[in-house]
Amino acid sequence: MDTLSLKKLNTHPLNLICIICACIVPLLVTGPFLPDLIISFLSIWFLYFTIKNKIYYIYKNIYFYFFISFWLICILSSLFSDNVPFSLKASFFYVRIGIFSLLIFYLIDHNKKILDYFYYSFVITFGILIIDGFIQFFSGFNIIGLPLRENFRVSSFFGSELILGSYLARLFPLFLALFFIRKEKKFFEIFFFLILFLGVYIMVLISGGRSSFLFMNLAIIFLLIFIYDHKYLKAVLFLIALTITIIIFIKNDRMYNRWFGPFYSSLTAVKSLALKFDGQNHGYIVSAAHDSFLKVSLQMFKEKPILGHGPKMFRVECNKLKLKKIDVICSTHPHNFYVQALAETGFVGFIFLNGLLIYFIYIVLKLTIYRFIFNKKFLSNYQICLLAGLLITIWPLNTNGNIFNNMLMMTYGLQMGFFRKII
Q1: pLDDT tens digit string along 164-188?
Q2: Whose CB among 90, 121, 175, 281 lies 3.0–4.6 Å from 312's, allowing a Cys bridge?
Q3: Regarding beta strands 275-277 and 283-285, do their DSSP bridges make them parallel or antiparallel, or are they unpaired?
Q4: What is the DSSP string of 121-166?
């Protein structure tokens, strides 16, 4: 960047922008509206800022090229959908996630205070959620009167939205990354972090989300394998996770029944761990609902295999099948990124999503070779933590959210912005 651009840069309130960005962490708890509004505003501001100051280099990277290509495919898919306005509303504004990710990358490069702002934002937000979650778990209501959800699931301030576990599990790797890059950590800070980790792990467990708990443990295993040094910290994290899981399952019947009740019911009924059968002897994986989602998605893919039916069109097409009196169970999305990509963006969109997965697998393989064969550092601990967070987001062998869901994509864009910057 030239001297003139640097002078212009100093006239902008980047410190205020950093604070606004860090506010996204607690605002995600309030729902998608406020954080989405902030991200939209920040994306427009950053686009204006880079064009005005001719900071075009920020867009010249493989990550952004890949994202823009996928975005254009989504728009093209929407234009060929049966409900263009409805689908285009989801795809057109999707670009804000990519621009926001570039903004995070840029801010880290020009104002290191953003790292502290985000760290303390996580400390405060996670701390409040943990305290409130325990109050709700033991008393039946949280501090603002929201009750435990069905099957005694803790949701804290998320209320009827049972995403407390998902929120904590997906963002914890970023929090850990910010912890690792803090310099001169004192004993009290390390001790306090371990307490927070303990609280986060318990909250993910008692929130009742099986996918979230799997994500959390996959991230922990990944970190135990690849984090450099910190042997004592890794041992403590592992022992805490193992001990707490065993104690809760042994001492709390309702949690035990929540996690293992469906398993034993299935095992007793069909003597199988992989498949369950209905009265007509048709097999289905995981549940009848997920089997229905898969069936509808494959039908959508067969009808439009190249570009799909358009983003967010799963719910529309599924309801059409119900109107035709076809026996299906409908939802807003098929609960799997890759199945959804086939149905809504066709083979072209599916290739892009798999390309992203292959890229991250390549990084993991390269990290493994450097770590265990050459005994060299390929990524910093900071990036290893963020890689864990990104991997659990795009992990294909599990149920997950909507690929066009605002909250999910905001957390992904946030982590991607931090990941690209080596610290």
Answers
A1: 999 999 999 999 999 988 887 788 8
A2: 90
A3: antiparallel
A4: HHHHHHHHHHHHHHHHHHHSB-TTSPBPBGGGB--GGGTTS--HHH
- Cβ atoms of 418 and 109 within 8 Å: the answer is no
Chain centre distance of CA 221: 17
DSSP class per residue in 18-55: HHHHHTHHHHGGG-SHHHHHHHHHHHHHHHHHHHHTT-
Cα 385 to Cα 91, 215, 217, 413, 419: the distances in Å are 29, 13, 13, 15, 9
Where b means 16+ CB within 10 Å and e means fewer, 249-280 reads eeeeeebeebbeeeeeebeeeeeeeeebeeee
pLDDT in tens, 384-413: 999 999 998 888 877 777 888 877 888 888
- Residue 63 is predicted with a pLDDT of 86
The per-residue pLDDT for 209 is: 80
Residue keyed to tokens 């954080």: 35
Exposed, middle or buried: residue 218 (CB in 10 Å: 0-12, 13-18, 19+)? middle
Predicted confidence at residue 255, as pLDDT, reads: 57
Give me the sign of the Cα torsion angle 117, 211, 348, 80: negative
The answer to whether the CB of 310 falls within 8 A of the CB of 81 is yes
Q: Rounded to two decimals, what is the model's pTM?
A: 0.85
Q: Which amino acid is it at 92?
A: F
Backbone angles phi, psi at 283, to 5 degrees: -80, 150
Mean pLDDT of each 10-residue bin along the chain, 423 residues long = 45 81 94 91 94 91 91 95 92 92 91 92 96 92 88 85 90 93 83 88 85 86 83 68 65 55 42 41 61 89 94 91 81 90 94 91 93 87 91 83 82 86 52
Return all residues near 246 (Cβ < 8 A) that are at least 6 apart. Answer: none
Tokens of 259: 């996690």
Considering Cα of 264, then 268, then 271, then 274, what sign does the dihedral take?
Answer: negative
The dihedral formed by the CA atoms of 401, 402, 408 and 412, expressed in degrees to the nearest 10: 100
Beta carbons of 104 and 48 less than 8 angstroms apart: no
Q: 165 Cβ partners below 8 Å, 6+ apart?
A: 203, 204, 205, 207, 208, 209, 212, 213, 216
Q: Are 164 and 207 in contact (CB under 8 A)?
A: yes
Kindly tell me the number of DSSP H helices and DSSP E strands found in the chain: 18, 2
